[in-house]
């Protein structure tokens, strides 16, 4: 049983620990935010995203953190993530202009111009004096007009029926031509819907974009095979659109993914090999360009170049030959002479040279192992000099 006097100090200790922990967390949070802003200023955007994520984990209800992380994601071209962050910031505080600016910027880069314009208009309502919003709205209007212009297709004019007065003076052949043209136009089948597509690639993936605007996600079917991509779009009242190319290279179906946006379908294909695709679709005469590989064994790495390749082994042999044929004088010539003898000698000769040189303190150099192998080699002082041993 703990008395009240004993309990009170314990309670004070707990309060002290809690206060200290709170201060430490506050300091840690402040440090993370500061480091994140510094990383962004230094163009270390990936580090900034990571630091903002850590700060958000400590304070998940701070809209400024989501807005700032959105800006870092925009710099990294992670536009989908930037839209998500901006939406979260707006959800937490709808009065932050920069959140609308960043949402609009990310949506614009995703070619969702209507959504981007709505975001910019909301931001402009909060800060009418900020000219950035009006500039972005003009850009959105221009892109929306261009998109709508592409969707307007010239209608096929029906041939005007010839009147009786007009055909009286016509030859029968010309009348037959008019009738033939009329029947061809009448029996022409409705055009099959077509969507423009393009692609770009990274070492590890190929990104295919099908520009299908306003297609519901449940009307889009995308399947991946080992070397096949299958895209099907079924819109009521129209023939199904099927895009099913045999791909340039093999992919990993489990790692492939796609997303249906308001203006396009974005498909990411994970490559099996990090090779450069010269085209999206397979062609029999396609040339495979591989990424640089690490050489194995003793084979020297080769690098693509427009310059003539050099035989480095031949150059190395030439340098060694020049060193061997080099004419030296004095001690340099003597040292070279002994080096050449040692490099060309057999194992016994090398042992004899090493043993005699070491044991004689550099005064004797013998090549006869039978002579020096069984006894210690005594040093011989040069003429006019005396050989002494140092005592330790």
Automatic annotation (TrEMBL):
For the keyword Repeat, the answer is yes
* Domain spans labelled CS: 192-281
* BP term (GO), one: response to stress
Keyword annotations for this protein, in alphabetical order, are: Repeat, TPR repeat
- Which sections of the protein are TPR repeats? 29-62
Q: Which InterPro entries match?
A: CS_dom, HSP20-like_chaperone, SGS_dom, Sgt1-like, TPR-like_helical_dom_sf, TPR_rpt
- Transmembrane regions: none
Domain SGS, chain residue ranges per copy:
302-392
Provide the GO MF annotations for this entry.
Answer: protein-folding chaperone binding
Similarity annotation? Belongs to the SGT1 family.
Designated name of the protein: Protein SGT1 homolog
Organism of origin is: Chrysanthemum boreale
